[in-house]
């Protein structure tokens, strides 16, 4: 007994001695290691993309070798663990690409040595839902745009970037706007390609450049709308004309710029100083001066100037700073599989009736006749199990080795060489196991998963060949990925449209690769219906731009005579027939008026159409000043697939393309509000922006709306008419309307008892640079009211 007691004591002593070094070493390492975690870019990220999480480990005294692991109750640590080695007195980092679903929950980063945790740090953060602006330059670059609502994670956040952030596609995809100031940055070719790809997929890039210092980077140079040929000194007072007149004190060095496939936005003494260029679905804006040059660094007109430039180039700050992620619209639609044929209700009803007869009176009568009614205890479950097995075997055999895919989303066609695809693709897997989804080169790919499935995917870090691998997939379950991808063979819709009186006339030809049905011509916030537009078809358009009362009948295109159907017309040049007065034989005509966009959506009883259209409107709202063709196709964009599987594809895409509108020379026209670009530039009382189809809501305070007329050098204004509702011709009595008089600097009250008409001479004092009108709407009550903007009609004639 005494011997046993001594053995136990010796064993305990050895156990303590054995554990003590490990515990002591771990404690010492915890003291010597400094762990920090950064999510997104300086703590900011968008919830609709994979988020880079950078883990930095500093070893104060000794060399360290171990692993870094993301720990979460829904995460398989094997998928989120990376090795790390840190020299004494140095720092090292590893980066994980995590789903926003993880970051929105409580998680921890754990550092291990030989499998033993030595230090850890909790993390939790929320996505930023506003405009995220990244800058590379001196401190304070574009800080005048920063206005964050930290409580609601909206607004505009301006954050400084490091060189490695620009090189990472995963960092760039979190940005809405990137600002690079030439004297303070250099790019590698890899970074230039990453920036180019980001711009093509919809990013907006601002470059301040006084020289051609990046001429050796072809991937970057091709983005720029200007090249420099020497330098001059200028005072840039021309910029103040685009603001309230804030003067610029002093001169700056300016590049002697010439545009290269770009558009001059502002020039100074005949030299372009700001130009822009459309690149894919994104845009590059370049200045010929240093964005932080002395007199410009603290110029009071910066915010107004860049707000106006960005909005006129399609980047609406007011909208984007409240733009919440609505990818779930597409996710819901993608998980409906029309090609996965199920039994009809009639077939199921007949089968159920047969089953009830079989196991009810049928089985009873059979056993009674055999005088074996006690067999019913075994026969009933045996029949049920047999029928269940037959159904399972039949279902498995009919769907064996097939992966049913459903791709839904929006295809925005920029030109004949480029389209941007925003898509969610879901697939039903037949056998379970491991499945790999691959996207086309240059895509952004993100798995869309529920929290309890975060552990079953891995994202490749090869950005040239983006892929997601789903692991441990259960039999006949659904997985989904979101894809933003370029499409370079989409073709385009060719439009030759012009105003004639108060009508929109011309031709539209489908030279895309998609057959379009349920086609709409969207004019601002109004729409008209066109007949289906298959590939190669040409359609004459003759639409009244006057609003009409909405009925279902008024939304239907007139019937088409099959005898006059025109064959495919690929390669046929479209010309204006007799100034749009004639009608080529066989081309369908359309002569409906306009109805509200949301009225058209209400007619789309198919919920799938409605959710995709709402997604598109939230991403890029239908707005005055644009003319879009919108149509639906069930042909896939083929931007992602499950390789080496027998796919059964399905698709539903909304195809969008902006169409230009011309003025016929010496033709008097009436331009409605729908074709006049407008935006709210400042406000003190907007409570709700009302996206995507409702009017903003104004509390106590005001909102200033800016309306852009045709350029004075190309259009002669004869008359301008303002009315306060397209249907009632009234305005809420609690709202006060004023026009800004640019000659006196005052706001002049408007009559609100109907329609106000101005002659060319009367409207002139209210037009800045001959074409910019500002309207202030003021609510002095405590009641929230919808912003009823005046309906403006401009009558005049294009100059020859």
UniProtKB/TrEMBL annotation:
Keywords: Membrane, Signal, Transmembrane, Transmembrane helix
Keyword Transmembrane helix: yes
Signal peptide from the UniProt entry: 1-26
Highest taxon, organism lineage: Bacteria
InterPro entries membership: Class_I_gatase-like
Membrane-spanning segments: 348-367, 379-397
Name under which the protein is recorded: Uncharacterized protein
């Amino acid at each position: 007994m005494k011997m046993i007691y001594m053995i136990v004591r010796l064993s305990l002593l050895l156990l303590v001695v054995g554990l003590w070094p490990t515990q002591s070493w771990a404690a010492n390492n915890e003291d010597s290691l400094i762990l920090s975690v950064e999510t997104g870019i300086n703590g900011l990220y968008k919830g609709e993309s994979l988020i880079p999480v950078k883990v930095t480990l500093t070893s104060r005294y000794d060399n360290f070798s171990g692993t870094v692991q993301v720990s979460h109750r829904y995460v398989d640590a094997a998928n989120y663990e990376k090795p790390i080695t840190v020299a004494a007195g140095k720092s090292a980092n590893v980066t994980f690409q995590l789903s926003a679903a993880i970051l929105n929950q409580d998680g921890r980063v754990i550092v291990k040595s030989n499998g033993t945790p030595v230090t850890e740090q909790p993390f939790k953060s929320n996505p930023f839902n506003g405009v995220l602006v990244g800058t590379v330059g001196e401190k304070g670059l574009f800080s005048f745009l920063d206005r964050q609502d930290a409580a609601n994670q909206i607004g505009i956040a301006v954050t400084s970037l490091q060189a490695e952030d620009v090189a990472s596609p995963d960092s760039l995809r979190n940005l809405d706007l990137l600002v690079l100031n030439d004297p303070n940055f250099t790019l590698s070719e890899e970074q230039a390609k990453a920036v180019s790809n980001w711009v093509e997929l919809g990013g907006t890039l601002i470059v301040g450049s006084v020289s051609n210092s990046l001429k050796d980077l072809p991937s970057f140079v091709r983005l720029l709308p200007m090249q420099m040929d020497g330098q001059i000194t200028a005072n840039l007072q021309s910029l103040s004309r685009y603001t309230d007149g804030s003067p610029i004190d002093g001169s700056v060095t300016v590049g002697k710029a010439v545009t290269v496939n770009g558009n001059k936005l502002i020039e100074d003494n005949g030299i372009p100083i700001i130009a822009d260029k459309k690149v894919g679905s994104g845009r590059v804006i370049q200045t010929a001066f240093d964005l932080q040059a002395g007199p410009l660094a603290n110029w009071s007109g910066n915010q107004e100037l860049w707000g106006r430039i960005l909005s006129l180039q399609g980047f609406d700050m007011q909208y984007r700073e409240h733009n919440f992620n609505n990818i779930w619209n597409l996710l819901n639609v993608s998980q409906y599989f029309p090609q996965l044929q199920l039994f009809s209700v009639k077939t199921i009803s007949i089968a159920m009736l047969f089953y009830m007869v079989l196991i009810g009176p049928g089985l009873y009568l059979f056993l009674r006749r055999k005088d074996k009614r006690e067999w019913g205890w075994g026969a009933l479950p045996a029949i049920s199990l047999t029928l269940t097995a037959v159904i399972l075997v039949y279902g498995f055999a009919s769907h064996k080795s097939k992966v049913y895919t459903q791709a839904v989303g929006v295809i925005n066609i920029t030109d004949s060489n480029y389209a941007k695809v925003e898509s969610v693709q879901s697939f039903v897997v037949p056998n379970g196991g491991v499945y790999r989804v691959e996207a086309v080169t240059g895509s952004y790919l993100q798995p869309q998963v529920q929290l309890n499935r975060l552990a079953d995917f891995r994202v490749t870090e090869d950005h040239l060949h983006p892929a997601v691998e789903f692991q441990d997939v259960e039999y006949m379950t659904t997985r989904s990925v979101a894809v933003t991808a370029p499409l370079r063979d989409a073709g385009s819709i060719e439009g030759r449209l012009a105003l004639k009186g108060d009508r929109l006339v011309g031709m539209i030809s489908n030279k895309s690769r998609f057959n379009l049905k349920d086609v709409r011509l969207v004019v601002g916030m109004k729409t008209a219906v066109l007949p289906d537009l298959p590939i190669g078809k040409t359609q004459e358009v003759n639409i009244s731009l006057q609003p009409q009362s909405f009925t279902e009948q008024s939304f239907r295109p007139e019937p088409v005579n099959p005898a006059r159907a025109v064959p495919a017309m690929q390669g046929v040049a479209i010309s204006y027939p007799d100034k749009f007065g004639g009608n080529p034989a066989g081309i369908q005509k359309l002569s409906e008026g306009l109805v509200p966009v949301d009225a058209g959506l209400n007619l789309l009883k198919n919920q799938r159409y409605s959710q995709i259209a709402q997604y598109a409107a939230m991403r890029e709202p239908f707005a005055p000043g644009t003319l879009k063709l919108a149509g639906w196709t069930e042909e896939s964009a083929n931007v992602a697939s499950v390789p080496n599987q027998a796919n059964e594809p399905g698709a539903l895409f909304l195809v969008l393309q902006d169409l230009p509108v011309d003025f016929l020379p010496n033709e008097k026209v009436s331009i409605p509000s729908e074709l006049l670009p407008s935006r709210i530039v400042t406000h003190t009382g907007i409570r709700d922006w009302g996206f995507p189809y409702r009017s903003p809501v104004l509390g106590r305070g005001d909102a200033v709306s800016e309306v852009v007329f045709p350029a004075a050098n190309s259009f002669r204004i004869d008359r301008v008419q303002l009315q306060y509702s397209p249907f009632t011709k009234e305005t809420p009595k609690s709202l006060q309307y004023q026009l800004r008089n640019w000659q006196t600097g005052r706001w002049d009250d408007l009559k609100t008892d109907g329609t106000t008409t101005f002659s060319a001479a009367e409207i002139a004092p209210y037009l800045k640079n001959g074409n910019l009108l500002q309207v202030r709407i003021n609510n002095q009550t405590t009641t929230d009211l919808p912003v009823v903007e005046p309906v403006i009609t401009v009558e005049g004639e294009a100059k020859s």
